[in-house]
Amino acid sequence: MTNIRHNWTKEEILTIYNKPFMELLYEAATVHRQHHDPNTVQVSTLLSIKTGGCPEDCGYCPQAARYHTNVEGNDLMSVQQVKAQALRAKSTGSSRVCMGAAWRNVKDGAEFDQVLEMVRTINKLEMEVCCTLGMITENQAHRLAEAGLYAYNHNLDSSEEYYKEVISTRGYEDRLQTIDNVRKTNVTVCSGGIIGMGEKIEDRAGMLVALSTLNPQPESVPINALVAVEGTPLADEKPVEIWDMIRMVATARIVMPETQVRLSAGRTQMSREGQAMCFFAGANSIFAGDKLLTTPNPDVNEDLKMFEALGLNPQKPFTKKVQPQTVEAAESQFQALGEKPKWTRPEHKIERNEVAKQQSKILK
Ligand code: SF4
């Protein structure tokens, strides 16, 4: 019988994170084997369906309109374009397509209707569909669920305390509210964060407290290592040490035994050996494709070679949960309500974000 704890404290999680490395690795690998097939790794393809021009100020993100980066903005992709990319991803072993749009929150209207059509189309390809579209209301979550959405991604990014050092245009409580809205449907939750943003180990533990005390715990937890992009406020942060990544994965595995822990951004900075240790420590999902939204990612062929060398098999779609049924738009019970939810805007000043914004004005 599974005994999932939802009352982890920061002290307990810090104790796990700081264990002697070999002990931590052994414990995490043991928990991993009790709950998962250690030779199976779920593969997701992340697709940027609407790139750049985002009004938020996330300090790590090259898609924020206020920073000067090399990201070229694109309007929302067509359903046909998305379908073609999904078929390509399927042919190279991806079981899931995750569609990301650089929006603050979802607005009812033609663009959201188009995204719903994308969800219907990919679900009919027998692939798991995930979306990451910013904050959503309960009604919007229901509409996505009806279309056949399998997962909704909404990262907590860091601890509640450190979040305020990275983002000023939206609040932590809105992140939690969106996750709660998703939980009112049968869509699974994908939520994780980023390490290497200048946070303390306590913040990493704080993020794992926030995630592991959710009830139910998220079905997927992506662990990203910051990819420092020129022009963003976090451009000068040092690359994450592989040991930190392994410790983070192992700790996430121990406190969230049934969750799929995903190695996400930052894999290009990791050797194959480093990634193998992450898999041993409990990571059992990756993002595939040569780009993660806008930042580089290992080539698909490289990943296939790594899987072969390690004897890993891609997880089949709907292994963990049955495929949702798609309800066509005409039969939908949930219609657009044209809601105008009041998502928060703390708007506190973050010095490095201000500096990057000023710098951007000069360069533009
Ligand atoms: S992380 Fe998302 S919300 Fe934040 S700036 Fe980038 S695209 Fe916008």
Oligomer: single chain
Which distinct ligands sit in these coordinates? iron/sulfur cluster
Number of domains: 1
The name of the CATH topology is TIM Barrel
CATH superfamily: Aldolase class I
Query: Into which percent range does the helicity of residues fall?
Result: 25-40%
Based on secondary structure, the structural category is alpha/beta
Task: Give the helix tally.
Answer: 12
Major β-sheet, in short?
10 strands, parallel
Portion in strands: 5-15%
User: What is the typical, i.e. mean, pLDDT?
Assistant: 94
Order of helices and strands: HHEHEHEHEHHEEHEHEHEEEHEH
- The coarse silhouette is globular
Query: For the CA atoms, what is the radius of gyration?
Result: 19 Å
Strands, total number:
12
Account of the protein in words:
Belongs to the radical SAM superfamily. Biotin synthase family. Its cofactor is [4Fe-4S] cluster; [2Fe-2S] cluster. [4Fe-4S] cluster binds at residues 54, 58, 61. The protein is an alpha/beta fold. The chain has one domain: TIM Barrel, CATH 3.20.20.70. It is 37% helix and 15% strand. The protein has 12 helices and 12 strands. The strands form 2 sheets. Strands 1, 2, 3, 4, 5, 6, 7, 8, 9 and 12 form a 10-stranded parallel beta sheet that branches. Strands 10-11 form a two-stranded antiparallel sheet. Helix 5 packs across helix 7 (172-183). The longest helix is centred in the first third of the chain and has 15 residues, at 21-35. It is globular, with a radius of gyration of 19 Å. The mean pLDDT is 94. The structure holds iron/sulfur cluster. Residues 54, 56, 58, 61, 63-64, 102, 134 line the site of iron/sulfur cluster (SF4).
